[in-house]
Structures are given as C-alpha cells and as structure tokens.
Amino acid sequence: MSGKLLSPDELEAALRAIGAERYHNLHPFHRALHDGRLNRAQVQAWALNRYYYQASIPAKDAILLARLPTAELRREWRRRLVDHDGDAPGTGGVARWLKLTDGLGLDRTYVESLEGLLPATRFAVDAYVAFVRDRSILEAIASSLTELFSPTIISERVAGMLRHYDFITPETLAYFQPRLTQAPRDSDFALGYVKEHARTPEQQKAVLDALKFKCGVLWAMLDELEYAYVNPGRIPPGAFRPDAA
C-alpha cells in the first residue's frame, strides 16, 4: 500500500481483497476437510487443535474489553464473551465446540488438558492473543475482521462435512449455526469502527497488516495440521496420536 489515504469504501475493499487472497478457506487442508478427503483421525486432529483457538477467543476478547475506553465500546465487545463463554455452564461457543470433539470420540478431559496440541497451534494462537494485548486498539479490532469471511467457510464446512462423513451429524456441528448470525453482527461493528477510526495512511496500513496477520495465524494452524497428519510419520513428540487416543 502506498502512502495514499484511502476513502472508507476503498479501505473496506482493500480489507476484503486480503480475505479473498489469504483467508484459510483456500488452504489445502480446509479443502480436503470440506471435500471429504480426510479420515476420522485427521478430522479429530483438526477439532482438537482448533479447540485451543476457540477457547482462547474469549480470553482475547476479555483482554481487549479491559482496554476499551468507553462504556459503549465495552458493552458492544462484551457480547462476544457471552457468545463464546455462554451465560451459564454448558452454554456458549466453547461448550458447543466440546460437543463437536465429544461427537468425534475424543475424551473431553484430554481435549481440555491441551496435552495433544501441535506446537505450531499453541504458538499461533498465543501470538494472536499477544497481538491483541500489545497492539493498538484499532489494530486489535481490525484483527477480528476475519469474521467478514467466516459465514462462507462455515456454510462450506457444514455442508461438506455432513455430505461426506458418516461420523458427523447436525448435532455434532451445533457450534456453527449461531456463528452464521453472530459473526456478521460482530464484523459489521468492527468494520464500521475501523473505517471510522483509521484516518491516516499509517493507521490504514496498520489495519490492513492486522488482518493479514490474523489470516496468517489461521493459515499457519492448517499448515501444521497438514504437515503432521496428512504426511505420515511427521507428528511431533507429545502431540495427539490417533492410534493412542
């Protein structure tokens, strides 16, 4: 990006172009998951590693919530905590993700222990939480804009997994249905905030870089899954091994 100041609509177009090029719906592992080319153990590995990302989202949002300067902003961001953590035991997105891992035959205690995580999963997710903690509020909010693209990947994922895997049921995939309305609501707010507050070329570049970073986090997670579980013999020490589960 040059030093030219973009209009709000031009900034939105640049953000959407990043998603069109870098969002992880384009990753070969996702395509294999959607197209039914993974076996049960590979789907288990995906769900187990993705759990750490899902469980870290409310922690990330709580960190940002504490940094927000106004009650209006905090009220808006607080909804995300309820969406993921729920407002009672057994509710919310994290609990629904555990129903997915349950349905895939993974022991819940093992999943929650994080003992089987791939190292790159931990590094990528921790880097995202640190980014939200350490960067500007504008960059932290911009990093959430992968939600602009999530309804597409959710629709693909649900339809593809139900079509191709006999061990997947609609109940197993209960996590995804609420996200079809939650993600657009959240991304509409974040996009509006970014378009209003990125007022200099430097701020706009930071916003675009934040979204690139977040796309990289999600891409790196799938890179490691593909390396470890699609290529035999490359599972790192201590990570989930299907034959030992």
Fold topology:
Blueprint: H1 8-22, H2 28-35, H3 40-67, H4 71-85, H5 93-103, H6 108-113, H7 119-134, H8 137-142, H9 150-164, H10 176-197, H11 201-230
Helix pairs in contact: 1-11, 2-9, 3-4, 3-5, 3-7, 3-11, 7-11, 9-10
Describe this structure in words.
The protein is mainly α and 245 residues long. The protein has one domain: Heme oxygenase-like (Heme Oxygenase, Chain A), CATH 1.20.910. It is 70% helix and 0% strand. It contains eleven helices and no strands. It has helices spanning 8-22, 28-35, 40-67, 71-85, 93-103, 108-113, 119-134, 137-142, 150-164, 176-197, 201-230. The model has no long low-confidence stretch (mean pLDDT 94). This is Pyrroloquinoline-quinone synthase. Belongs to the PqqC family. One of its GO terms (molecular function) is pyrroloquinoline-quinone synthase activity. Pathway: Cofactor biosynthesis; pyrroloquinoline quinone biosynthesis.
Characteristics:
Heme Oxygenase, Chain A; Thiaminase-2/PQQC; 245 residues; 70% helix
Radius of gyration: 18 Å
Q: Helical element count?
A: 11
Uncertain segments are: none
What is the number of independent domains?
1
What fraction, in percent, of the residue positions are helical? over 70%
Rounded average pLDDT? 94
How widely separated are the two ends? 48 Å
